[in-house]
Amino acid sequence: MSTLLLCVDKLEVVYQRAITAVQGITLSAREGQIVGVLGTNGAGKSTLLRAISGFHGIDDARVTEGSIVFKGRRIENSEPHAIAQTGIVLVPERDKVFPNLTVAENLAVPVAPKLAGSERRRRETQVMQFFPKLGALRNRTAGLLSGGERQMLAIATALVCRVELLLVDELSLGLAPVVVDDLMARLMQIKRELGITIVLVEQSAAVALAVADYSYVLENGRIVLDGDKARLASHADIQEFYLGNANGGQRRSYRDVKQYRRSRRWYG
Amino acid sequence: MQLAVNITVLAAIYALIACGYVLVYRVSRVLNLAHGELMMLGAYLLLMTATQFSSHWLAALTAAVLLSLSTGVLVYVFLMRKMTGEMVLAAVLTTVALGILLRGAMVLIWSAQQFYPAQPLQIANVAIALPGGARISLCAALLVLTTALVYGALLTFLRFGRWGVRMRAAGQNPLLAAQRGINLHAIYALAWGLSTLTGALAGMLIALDAGLNQTMAIIGLKAFPAALVGGLDSLAGALAGALIVAAAEILLINYVDPLLSEVVPFLVLIAMLIVRPWGLFGTREELDRV
Predict the structure, then answer these.
(1) Does any CB of chain B come closer than 8 Å to the CB of residue A56?
(2) Which of A6, A87, A208, B78 has the fewest other C-beta atoms within 10 Å?
(3) Is residue B283 packed enough to be buried (19+ CB in 10 Å), middle (13-18) or exposed (0-12)?
């Protein structure tokens, strides 16, 4: 079994010293794995990613309990730029590129320590090979790119950072299914060639379950389910509430729908 | 012709001061209302170094420039750093307090008397005759040249320099910049240092040209309309704004009443705020954050 890269243990995040966003989250990612995090709006998915990638002064948020260990070092409550330099890079849900900079300038922004100029250029050309489309758009202002191109650029800038653990928040948000499929395929190729680990946060369960080696389901800031692809895909609740396939895919009348959820227990 | 020269010199003064407002505003959305005082401090620092290195004007100038650069960095590290993550208004008020404090401290240290730093440095402020019958003093010519150089350097740095690009990135989206490994504190400290440096340069050159007393901070305040007319987040805008304000001021002094000098920049400012509140080159949506 490959080594443990990221280990989140009983994490609790509190906003503005009063609002608890997530509680008792325990999650781990092994080297080369794709870990999916599923959940509805407000389940705490983005908070989890933000906690791993570091909070900013203005967020007024803190990890109050538990720990985040990356490559054997505790990183909870570190500054975002310090965390980025250890190799964790977040592709946020929105505002993922600098809109007034060109594509080439966006790629020049990330600070990667211990990377000489020549190696950096090599890395940039390598990244461009994954997204040949960006090469043609080098001098275009990033604010004028389409949603899919922006997502490509965001992933490309993250890769220039010398990323080891890529956190992707809502890859599929606001994109056409064709574009999502294309991006996913590229992400898989990147993962294979660069050997990076990916944590994928998704509302779209179908997208996440299709690629993730291991997934966690978040509800109300807690983990309610976890398991590998086979276990989750066969779980009745996932089928019904996240994939909408109750009744074995048969059509059914709204009259029969009972909108209640089975009680869940959570760990921690 | 003399009128055109006067406009150019005044525009250069305003532009050199205004770029300090723009630099800090652009990266941190904070309006530095102590900029005039920091500029005056730069001039007094030159006075101090001038008595130390009396025969070497270059050494005195370099020392004063380095001192003002570190002043700017120190202002960020010890004062404004605490204000990151707070409301922008709180940060702006902090700069107001800093300005009052600095003004008081400078009266205490250097008294309110008129100084001429050019004297100990033995710089003869000769008048140079220009074609067309106009005349310009050596220091004023130096000031125009410095402004051109500073703007050239700043625009090149922000456009092509790796850290210049990062500075623009941090100004647009500080959170994303931090997530891409940029140390925001370093960027902000750099902006404060550069802003104080350019302001202090303006202060020093004005002091060499026309002497130095406690009213110099007013010039800093008069340059603020120039920055705002151009749009607070644009360097090219500051240049254009400085030119407009200076032209209006000189022309009105010349043809209407010399007493108008103090109010003209603010009249231009008010007119601009009515017509186009985000400035000539400013970004429109930035407005709600002011």
Answers:
(1) yes
(2) B78
(3) middle
- The three-class DSSP label of residue B38 is helix
Segment B63-103, tens digit of pLDDT: 999 999 999 999 999 988 888 767 788 888 999 999 999 99
Range of the domain at B61: 2-215
Report all structural domains of chain A as residue ranges with CATH numbers, in order of start: 31-54+86-256 (3.40.50.300)
For A203, B87, B250, the CA distances from A60, given in Å and listed in that order, are 25, 12, 49
Neighbour count for residue A60 (Cβ, 10 Å): 14
Q: Is residue B270 part of a domain?
A: no
Task: Return the H-helix or E-strand segment holding A36.
Answer: strand A34-39
User: Residues A134-146: pLDDT tens digits?
Assistant: 888 888 888 888 8
Which of A97, A100, A109 faces B166 most closely, judged by CB atoms?
A109
The structure's pTM equals 0.85
The DSSP code sequence of B182-217 is --HHHHHHHHHHHHHHHHHHHHHHHHHHH-B-TTHH
- Rounded Cα distance, A216 and A218, in Å: 6
Identify whether the C-beta of residue A129 lies closer than 8 Å to the C-beta of residue A207: no
What contacts B188, CB < 8 A, 6 or more positions away?
A: B27, B28, B76, B80, B81, B84, B170
User: B165 and A57: CB-CB below 8 Å?
Assistant: no
> How many CB atoms lie under 10 A from the CB of residue A250?
7
CB neighbour class for B51 (10 Å; exposed up to 12, middle 13-18, buried from 19): exposed
How many of the other CB atoms lie within 10 Å of CB of B52? 12
Tell me, rounded to whole angstroms, the distance of Cα B163 from its chain centroid. Answer: 21
Give the E-state strand segments of chain B in sequence order: 127-129, 135-137
The interface pTM score, or ipTM, of the predicted complex is 0.84
Task: Name the CA dihedral angle for A120, A122, A126, A129, rounded to a multiple of 10 degrees.
Answer: 120
**Chain A neighbors of B234, CB-CB under 8 A:** none
Backbone angles phi, psi at A148, to 5 degrees: -65, -40
The backbone torsions φ and ψ at residue A262, rounded to the nearest 5 degrees and listed phi first, read -65, 145
Q: How far apart are CA B114 and CA B209, in angstroms?
A: 13
Q: Which of B23, B178, B84 has its CA nearest to residue A95?
A: B178
Q: How far is CA B176 from CA A110, A157, A174, B179, B290, in A?
A: 10, 11, 20, 5, 21
- Indicate yes or no: CB of B175 within 8 angstroms of CB of A80: yes
Residue B53 within any structural domain of the chain: yes
Is residue B198, in this structure, part of any structural domain at all? yes
Asked whether residue B229 is domain-assigned, the answer is no
Nearest CA in chain B to A61: B85
Q: Which of B84, B85, B181 sits opposite A81 (nearest CB)?
A: B181
Question: If we measure between CA atoms, which residue out of B151, B141, B237, B144 comes closest to residue B198?
Answer: B151
Residue position matching structure tokens 């609002």: A19
